[in-house]
Amino acid sequence: MLYSFFLEYRGGTYINQYSGQTMEEALRVWAESLPIENVVGASHSFRETLVAEIDDTMKHNGPVSVSGLINIWVCTFLFEDHSVGILSIVATEKGTNVCAT
Q1: Which whole-number Å values give the CA distances from 42 to 8, 32, 56, 78, in the listed order?
Q2: Per-residue tens of pLDDT for the chain, all 101 residues
Q3: Contact between 7 and 75 (Cβ < 8 Å)
Q4: Cα 13–87–22 angle (5° rounding)?
Q5: DSSP at 97
Q6: Are 26 and 18 in contact, with CB atoms under 8 Å apart?
Q7: Please, are residues 63 and 87 in contact by the beta-carbon 8 Å criterion?
Q8: How far apart are CA 83 and CA 34, in angstroms?
Q9: How many CB atoms lie within 10 A of CB 63?
Q10: What H or E segment, with its residue span, contains residue 7?
Q11: Residues 7, 51, 55: CA angle, nearest 5 degrees
């Protein structure tokens, strides 16, 4: 399964895609691979905090599915400087790139 990750953080939107057998697997790859140098305002401990927040989220029921929608979840992260990251996750089958013209 292909997962799209949309991170809203300090006024910026960061979009990446990763594959995984499960959402948790893809989420961990995303957190470990996110190019932190491109995230405006990210401190040196950003990735460390992000991974810890993901571990906590997965331990406590995982990302929340968006009511009324299929294959879309959301979760939030609180960073040391009290800033908030909002992550939306969308699961898609690979090779379903459809564009109406």
Answers
A1: 12, 14, 20, 12
A2: 999 999 999 999 999 999 999 999 999 999 999 998 999 988 888 889 899 989 988 898 889 999 999 999 999 998 888 889 999 999 987 765 555 54
A3: no
A4: 125
A5: -
A6: yes
A7: yes
A8: 18
A9: 19
A10: strand 2-9
A11: 105
